[in-house]
């Protein structure tokens, strides 16, 4: 095993070219200066849609902090500033359309969200695989990738429901994913997906300008600290209402429980349980060396797109601390959860015996697993085709040592019986999250 520090991957030439084009376009007046001012962005979204109701104005608090952190800490390049402006416009426009739909169809907000199954685990601890295996079961409802990218239908969507038009959102998602792959071909290795693949609800939390989505793509430490001190209940309430809207747009039976997952829940379990008091929780666990290394790799491959000023050692330090915070907050919150409402699943058990592990999950859910097995096997085959290359990463490339990670999380691994050993080649090159 080679323990020599190695350099993390560089970004592609595609981003360098895009950045140069935008800079040149600004000089020529083709592109205007970045608009990273809250009031200007709100006005622009309202003008573009002809609407003015953004719903619960709580989102403006994290939005102000995020914008300040972006301007003073993120050190975005021209492509990053351009992308940030587009992202914010997208979120704000969706908030306006969300309220439009609630006014048109007040029955949406009356849809129940009963007994959701929520997967709670650190980034890179196998949550995606478990989520997609459960999503293969037609007894559950789930988000698709295009719905977390664009959760809110446009005003003409009623024509889609009537069979008179086509929903543009899957095509838009496919285009966005294609650009993401051009910007970083490692995207499919780190998180394989497609427009119709089951996907997590992180984008629905980010719809309130809150949460880890923003931290994983930009260096915004003061924003992250602010979020740690703030109650996430308003963001989770908005997320729940977006789920109601998505279920309505899917023409989904409100009797089918949702399968949910995002690492954000590690930080905000109290808010999750306030909004979903009857949630059933599946906690995933993995060797922290792999969690931290993989999370740092994911964040690095995002931030290098948007900024020219990235330090791999700082990325490693940040995600070591973030992982520790996630685990500490999860442990503190779960002490108040009745034992019969939660189950623990080890990453290694899923690696060695996914079927046996899923049978244990289904016993916890009080369901027969057999009707879902064919769909699960189909997902595993599809996943192998989606993932073109293994995700390669190491602690060393982010300035971290195995012993310091082991020591930092010793109590966690002992308490939850997490297998911890010297990483093998297979452990460093995972075929699944």
Structure description:
- With 433 residues, the protein is mainly alpha-helical.
- It has a single domain (33-430), classed as Rossmann fold (3-Layer(aba) Sandwich), CATH 3.40.50.300.
- Helices cover 57% and strands 5% of the residues.
- It is built from 23 helices and six strands.
- The chain has helices at residues 13-28, 38-49, 60-74, 78-104, 127-135, 145-149, 157-161, 169-183, 187-190, 202-206, 212-215, 221-229, 233-249, 264-267, 269-275, 288-306, 312-334, 347-352, 354-365, 370-386, 402-408, 410-415, 425-428; strands spanning 117-120, 259-261, 280-285, 342-346, 391-392, 429-430.
- The strands form two sheets. Strands 2-1-3-4 form a four-stranded parallel sheet. A two-stranded antiparallel sheet has the order 5-6.
- α16 packs across α17.
- The longest helix is centred in the first third of the chain and has 27 residues, at 78-104.
- The chain is globular.
- The two termini are 22 Å apart.
- Residues 423-433 have low confidence and may be disordered.
């Amino acid at each position: 095993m080679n323990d020599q520090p190695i350099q993390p991957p560089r970004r592609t030439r595609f981003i360098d070219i895009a950045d140069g084009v935008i800079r040149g376009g600004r000089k020529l007046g083709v592109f205007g200066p970045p608009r990273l001012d809250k009031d200007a962005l709100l006005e622009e979204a309202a003008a573009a849609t002809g609407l003015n109701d953004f719903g619960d104005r709580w989102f403006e608090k994290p939005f102000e902090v995020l914008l300040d952190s972006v301007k003073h800490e993120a050190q975005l390049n021209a492509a990053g500033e351009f992308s940030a402006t587009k992202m914010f416009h997208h979120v704000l426009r969706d908030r306006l359309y969300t309220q439009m739909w609630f006014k048109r169809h007040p029955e949406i907000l009356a849809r129940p969200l009963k007994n959701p199954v929520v997967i709670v685990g650190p980034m890179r601890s196998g949550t995606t695989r478990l989520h997609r295996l459960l999503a293969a079961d037609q007894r559950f409802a789930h988000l698709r990738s295009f719905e977390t990218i664009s959760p809110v239908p446009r005003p003409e969507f009623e024509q889609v429901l009537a069979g008179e038009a086509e929903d543009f959102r899957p095509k838009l998602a496919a285009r966005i994913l294609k650009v993401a792959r051009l910007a970083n071909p490692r995207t499919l290795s780190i998180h394989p997906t497609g427009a119709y693949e089951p996907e997590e609800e992180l984008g629905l939390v980010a719809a309130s300008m809150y949460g880890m989505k923003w931290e994983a793509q930009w260096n915004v430490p003061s924003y992250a600290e602010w979020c740690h001190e703030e109650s996430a209940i308003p963001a989770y309430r908005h997320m729940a209402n977006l789920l109601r809207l998505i279920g309505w747009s899917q023409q989904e039976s409100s009797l089918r429980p949702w399968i949910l997952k995002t690492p954000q829940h590690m930080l905000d379990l109290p808010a999750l349980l306030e909004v979903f008091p009857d949630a059933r929780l599946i906690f995933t666990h993995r060797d922290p060396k792999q969690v931290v290394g993989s999370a740092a790799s994911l964040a690095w491959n995002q931030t290098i797109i948007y900024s020219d000023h990235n330090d791999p050692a700082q990325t490693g330090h940040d995600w070591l601390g973030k992982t520790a915070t996630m685990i500490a907050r999860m442990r503190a919150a779960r002490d108040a959860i009745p034992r019969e409402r939660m189950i623990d699943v080890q990453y290694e058990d899923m690696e060695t015996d996914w079927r046996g592990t899923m049978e244990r999950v289904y016993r916890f859910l009080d369901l027969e697993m057999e009707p879902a097995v064919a769909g699960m096997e189909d997902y595993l085959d599809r996943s192998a085709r989606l993932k073109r290359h293994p995700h390669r990463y190491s602690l060393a490339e982010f300035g971290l040592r195995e012993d310091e990670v082991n020591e930092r999380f010793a109590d966690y691994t002992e308490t939850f019986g997490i297998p911890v050993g010297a990483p093998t080649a297979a452990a460093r090159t995972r075929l699944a999250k």
